[in-house]
């Protein structure tokens, strides 16, 4: 699904209205109404290319976590390429059902589990975390908490992959909230080594000029 900036803004406004009306349950209402501008309709090419071609020594055994997993494309990609036991969580039950349906229809034979869950309640350390649009969906006031939780969840030597999207002009409202790469730096603080920081060359047409890919290793 390729969306223009205008379409993203229009659909995001509908999501904001749902969250205003239903609080956190608004995410599930958005999925029920198929108001999901963050859903690209397929795996993120930037993530696939990173895992296959970056030369970074990602783990080939262990566990991975994808918060705000949506339809589960990225969790399946990670499990397929790296062979990690991957957990995708989302607070929207309809998203989790969509992820399980997609996994079944894909025929992928991978070690992936999708379940309803709160990222901030997770307490099991993992070898890799991937964040695509989860950070940008959080109110900025929760970003320090996101950073502290990532520090708890990623094992020493483990990896944090963030695909920052959408990088759009400033706005006071969200989601998606205004985001820039330095906002992740501020939330994470010390204790990480930045291994990669690029504008992906292999990406969705609708993402060109609106995303950045950053990989960190936990010290």
Blueprint of the fold:
Elements: H1 5-22, H2 26-32, H3 45-53, E1 63-67, H4 73-82, E2 85-90, H5 93-106, E3 112-116, E4 126-132, H6 134-137, H7 143-153, E5 154-164, H8 181-188, E6 192-198, E7 212-218
Parallel strand pairs: 1-2, 1-4, 2-3, 4-5
Antiparallel strand pairs: 5-7, 6-7
List keywords for this structure.
globular, 219 residues, alpha/beta, 7-stranded mixed beta sheet
Would you write up a description of this structure?
- The protein has eight helices and seven strands.
- It is α/β, with parallel strands linked by helices and 219 residues long.
- The chain has a seven-stranded mixed β-sheet.
Please state the structural category: alpha/beta
**Proportion of residues in β-strands:** 15-25%
So what's the overall shape? globular
Q: What is the strand arrangement across the widest sheet?
A: 3-2-1-4-5-7-6
Which spans have pLDDT < 50 for at least 5 consecutive residues? none
Radius of gyration, taken over Cα atoms and rounded to an integer in Å: 16 Å
Number of helices: 8
Distance between the termini: 37 Å
| Biggest sheet statistics | 7 strands, mixed
Total DSSP E strands: 7
Helix content: 25-40%
Order of helices and strands: HHHEHEHEEHHEHEE
Mean pLDDT: 91
What is this structure, in a nutshell?
The chain is an alpha/beta fold and 219 residues long. The protein has helices at residues 5-22, 26-32, 45-53, 73-82, 93-106, 134-137, 143-153, 181-188, and strands at residues 63-67, 85-90, 112-116, 126-132, 154-164, 192-198, 212-218.
């Amino acid at each position: 699904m390729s969306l223009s900036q205008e379409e993203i803004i229009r659909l995001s406004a509908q999501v904001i209205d749902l969250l205003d009306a239903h609080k956190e349950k608004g995410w599930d209402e958005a999925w029920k109404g198929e108001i999901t501008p963050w859903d690209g309709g397929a795996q993120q090419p930037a993530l696939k290319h990173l895992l296959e071609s970056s030369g970074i020594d990602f783990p080939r055994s262990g566990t991975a976590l994808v918060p705000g997993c949506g339809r589960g494309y990225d969790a399946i990609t990670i499990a397929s390429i790296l062979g990690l036991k991957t957990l995708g969580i989302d607070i929207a039950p309809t998203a989790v059902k969509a992820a399980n349906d997609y996994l079944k229809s894909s025929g992928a034979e991978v070690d992936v589990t999708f379940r309803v869950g709160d990222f901030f309640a997770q307490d099991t350390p993992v070898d890799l975390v991937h964040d695509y649009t989860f950070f940008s969906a959080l109110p900025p006031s929760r970003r320090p908490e996101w950073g502290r939780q990532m520090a708890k969840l990623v094992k020493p030597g483990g990896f944090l992959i963030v695909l920052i999207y959408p990088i759009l002009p400033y706005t006071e409202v969200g989601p998606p909230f205004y985001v820039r790469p330095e906002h992740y730096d501020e939330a994470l603080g010390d204790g990480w080594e930045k291994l990669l920081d690029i504008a992906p060359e292999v990406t969705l047409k609708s993402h060109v000029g609106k995303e950045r890919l950053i990989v960190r290793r936990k010290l």
